[in-house]
Amino acid sequence: MNQLKGIRACVFDAYGTVFDFASAAARCADIPEDRRGALTALWRDKQLQYTWLRSLQDRYADFWQVTGDALDFTLESLGIATPALRARLMDLYLTLSAFPEVPETLRHLKNEGFVTAILSNGSPAMLDAAVRGAGLQDLLDAVLSADAVQVFKTDPRVYEYGLQRLGLRAEQVSFQSSNAWDAFAASAFGMRVVWCNRYGQRRERLPGAPDHEVRNLAELPALLAPPD
After folding, report:
1. What are the φ/ψ torsions at residue 111 (nearest 5 degrees)?
2. What pLDDT was estimated at residue 13?
3. Cα 107 to Cα 139: distance, rounded to the nearest angstrom
4. What is the rounded distance in angstroms from the CA atom of residue 200 to the CA atom of residue 213?
């Protein structure tokens, strides 16, 4: 196994990588169990589409609004739109469950001397709520939002912002994302990348190439040489 050398910081995408976006619908008793998968998939698809389209149109709105707009589309499409259900799901999105291996992985990395951070499209308030709800606040050195640059990933300005805040070069960062498009974009930007392919996605036909592919973040520490 070829370990990544010279890494100073481990930077994580949030949604789908650290936090399970499916946990919002899974914890909502108002949605029949046989509809939760469809709701989660369409909500996530529209959420991502809206970030990309708003970036292309140069019409930024923060991730909270985008998430709400995507949910409105989803609930209407499924014929289950009510104000109460919308409010419940948006509230649950603020406290998404962390994947089971996340706390121990972050703890291990910090003990090894790595800087740990999140770099996400999520708005600052959303990320703060998710991090605190999952009890991760003491395991992360920085929580960075694309809101600071008013554009969403995969715009290079988001990855550049992360480097500026951490005071590091791209090759000193191991970036982890479960989203293939994000992993490939970070690689093309110059970061070292471990693609956490939780969902068995196919490799993208895009610039960039992740250095490693894993199924969950518990596999990450073994891929990193200790920091200098």
Report:
1. -65, -30
2. 98
3. 6
4. 10
Is residue 1 predicted with pLDDT exceeding 80?
no
- pLDDT above 90 (res 90): yes
Instruction: Give the C-alpha separation, 61 to 181, whole Å.
Output: 21
User: 142-145 and 173-177 as β-strands: parallel, antiparallel, unpaired?
Assistant: unpaired
Contact in structure between 105 and 120 (CB atoms under 8 Å):
no
> At residue 96, what is the residue type?
L
pLDDT above 70 coverage of the chain, percent: 100
DSSP string, the chain: ---B-S--EEEE-SBTTTB-TTHHHHT-TTS-HHHHHHHHHHHHHHHHHHHHHHHHHT----HHHHHHHHHHHHHHHHT---HHHHHHHHHHHTTPPBPTTHHHHHHHHHHHT-EEEEEESS-HHHHHHHHHHTT-GGG-SEEEEGGGTTS-TTSHHHHHHHHHHHT--GGGEEEEES-HHHHHHHHHHT-EEEEE-TT-PPPPSSS---SEEESSGGGSGGGBPPP-
End-to-end CA distance of the chain: 19
User: What is residue 228's predicted lDDT score, i.e. its pLDDT?
Assistant: 79
Active site residues: 13
pLDDT averaged over the chain? 97
Q: Which amino acid is at 104?
A: E
Output the six-digit token pair for 12.
């994580």
Q: Averaged over 60-75, what is the pLDDT?
A: 98
